[in-house]
Amino acid sequence: MGTSGAVIRELDCKTLREQAQTTPPFPHIIVDDFLDHDFAREVVESWPSYSEAAKIGREFRSINERNKVQVTDSAQFPPALRRLNDALASPAFTQAMTSIFGIPELLPDAELVGGGLHQTGPRGRLDVHVDFNYLEARRLHRRLNILIYFNEGWLTDWGGQLELWNRDVSKCVRSVDPIFNRCVIFETSEISYHGVTSVTCPEGMVRRSFAGYYYTTAAPASWTGQSHSTVFKARPDESVKSGLMAVKHVSGIMKGKLKTAIRKP
């Protein structure tokens, strides 16, 4: 499969389908040299600095996600990133995703909720989690995540690995270095636990990625009728954080109940 403008290189859907169906811990694929090399370099050269991105995006400094900035407004993207976003939303690419993952009628998210341009600085991280499963305002079920990395010369010692965990978050099954022009696509579900290890790159450097998501109007077979926001879990060696997460979770539940009570006549 190719896309207009030779942005995305041709995909071997048959081989990738086999990879998605057989690779634990949940359906996913890893594609190196995902984009045309010259185009990928164009994206890197146009990438805004951390401080520039922070002015037009959102910074994260929470217990679960920190030293990270995200830009979701595609109107703020440089031209190369707009071309990338358009290619990922193209009918040709979404049809390829349907072929690989067996999910019909996939829809890209023009609003890039939770997606877009991401960059994480030194000491940044993203804890293990499953993503929100439903966009209630648009009645869309979240089905696939796509991540593309733009980190030239990235060393394993610098951390920032994408980790894929088993269903009870007792074991990291796969660790993926965020190297230049690597793409990871995985099916989102109630067991697709993933996270990013602490970034330890030198000061002045950042971990760069672009994220996109795909939805369906039809509910997946596993749908229980219950929507949820992002659900974080502590790693096995994070006992202190586990306690803090539990307090945060209970606080969130109480706030939700209070809002419901206030809305009642």
UniProtKB/TrEMBL annotation:
Q: Name one GO biological process term.
A: regulation of translational termination
Identify the domain of life. Answer: Bacteria
| Every Prolyl 4-hydroxylase alpha subunit Fe(2+) 2OG dioxygenase domain range | 117-215
Extract one GO cellular component term from the record.
cytoplasm
| Classification via Pfam families | 2OG-FeII_Oxy_3 (PF13640)
Q: Which GO terms describe its molecular function?
A: peptidyl-proline dioxygenase activity
* Database matches in PANTHER family: HISTONE ACETYLTRANSFERASE COMPLEX, PROLYL 3-HYDROXYLASE OGFOD1
What name does the UniProt record give this protein? Prolyl 4-hydroxylase alpha subunit Fe(2+) 2OG dioxygenase domain-containing protein
Give the lineage. Answer: Bacteria, Bacillati, Actinomycetota, Actinomycetes, Mycobacteriales
